[in-house]
Specification:
Elements (H helix, E strand, L loop, with lengths): L16 H9 L3 H13 L3 H13 L3 H13 L7 H13 L3 H13 L7 H13 L3 H13 L7 H13 L3 H13 L7 H13 L3 H13 L7 H13 L3 H12 L3
Helix pairs in contact: 1-2, 2-3, 3-4, 4-5, 5-6, 6-7, 7-8, 8-9, 9-10, 10-11, 11-12, 12-13, 13-14
Length: about 260
Amino acid sequence: MKKILCLTLLGASILGANELESKCNNGDLIACVDLGKAYVKSQNYEKAVEVITKACDGGNTIGCIGLAGLYSTGQGVRQDYSKAIELLNKACDGGETESCSILGNVYESGDGVKQDYIKASELYTKACDGGDATACFNIAALYHKGLGVKQDHSKTIEFSIKSCNGGIAQACSNLGTSYYNAEGVKQDYLKAKDFFTKACEDGSSLGCFNLGALYGNGEGVRQDKKIAKEYFGKACDLGNQDGCDEYRKLNEQGY
């Protein structure tokens, strides 16, 4: 297992290090986590481990996730995957859905543990039920493939909708494809268009490409090569080479 989680620096407190240290010393566990983030940013990993351990030991589950990240990378401590997983389990048991989702990924990939799709599915489901959109996306994929669970396209759709509503653009794109191909649902080009549109708006290059294809073919929408070109261009801008190719073709045709 090369890495479980890097301690995020986003959302760190704007308080100065001295004030954070004072608050941490007085039992403010959130301040201990923020102080740990500051130490990670300055690459003082030993101090980061010290204060984040205090937060985790005090019951702060975010601190446990951060500490797991340090153990998995060996920053400030001897690299110890077993310890990292132990900490993630502690955070998951404490109700931290992100930790359950990370653990699910660990068991799905077999990265540092014996691969176990059943365990992964249980952890993803727990995290998804707690509102983790990434976990919803991952459990949808397991139902789609029949890994750790019985293959069930209706469950794939159910969890994909949760993930899409939670802001995962790829889930929206996948839903569009399901409605386009009639996979687990009745074929519906209009719904496919709606999901591709949401995916594209949320930054999915594939969603933009597929939306361009609908307009180009006139499926679920009135055929419009100019609009198709626009969406192919968006897909291209997002790194989709097929989008670039289709944009160029339409451009050469005078659209």
